[in-house]
Amino acid sequence: MRVILTLFGIVLLSACSFLSPVKVDLPDKYMLSKVPSYVPTKKTRPMILLIPTPETRPIYNTTQMAYMLKPYQIAYFSKNEWAETPAQMLHVLLIQTLQKTHFFKAVVTSPYNGHYDYVLNTEILELKEDLTHSTPLLVLSVRAQIFKISANQIIATKQFTVSLPIPRGTPYGAVFAANQAAATILRQIAIFCLDRITMA
């Protein structure tokens, strides 16, 4: 009887171990979610702006967070990553920022089957932690292009780049710097759109 009870106990403990959740070290996930605290505004015009999802250089078209330890080399963190791809996060922020200008009757995104007047195409060229300097830097670079539908041509193109020191040199410090850089570039893109479309 004692042997049977012992065997039963072993089986029960094995079953509990099998059914217990296995602890997996998942990477910490971070967001780009900061829009500019201030953007210039203009009187609303009867124009619709289409903002497609940004294009992204293939090495940054991932939720992995990129860093550089030496020139010409890109690596990715294993324990820290973006919650979504940079393009997905920046797309939402672009729409929110351009809406804040009140310049356009509507700011829409693809797929959109109605009429629109301008297209704001963007491309993420860089989003990385540059650790090749004595002070680590967060580098964000975005190219913006405005296309005028009625003229069937590009009316303006500009590249925006921001490099900011990473507070304390930590992963969260890099995310904080990335959000600050994104807000700066978003404001610059909004000014770019207002200026160039006003002159068009």
List the helices and strands and how they pair.
Blueprint: H1 2-19, E1 28-30, E2 45-50, E3 55-56, E4 64-68, E5 75-82, H2 86-100, E6 104-108, E7 118-130, E8 137-148, E9 153-165, H3 171-199
Helix pairs in contact: 2-3
Word description of this protein:
The chain is α/β, with parallel strands linked by helices. The chain has a single domain (27-199), classed as ABC-type transport auxiliary lipoprotein component (Rossmann fold), CATH 3.40.50.10610. It contains 3 helices and 9 strands, in the order H-E-E-E-E-E-H-E-E-E-E-H. It has helices spanning 2-19, 86-100, 171-199; strands at residues 28-30, 45-50, 55-56, 64-68, 75-82, 104-108, 118-130, 137-148, 153-165. Strands 1, 2, 3, 4, 5, 6, 7, 8 and 9 form a 9-stranded mixed beta sheet that branches. Helix 2 packs across helix 3. The termini are far apart. The model is unreliable at 3-8 and 15-19 (pLDDT under 50).
Strand content: 25-35%
Gyration radius from CA atoms, angstroms: 24 Å
Largest sheet, strands/sense/barrel: 9 strands, mixed
Distance between the termini: 93 Å
Morphology: elongated
Number of strands: 9
State the CATH class.
Answer: Alpha Beta
Question: Any low-confidence stretches, pLDDT <50, length ≥5?
Answer: 3-8, 15-19
* Helix/strand structural class: alpha/beta
Helix run count: 3
State the share of residues found in helices, binned by percent.
25-40%
For the record, the count of structural domains works out to 1
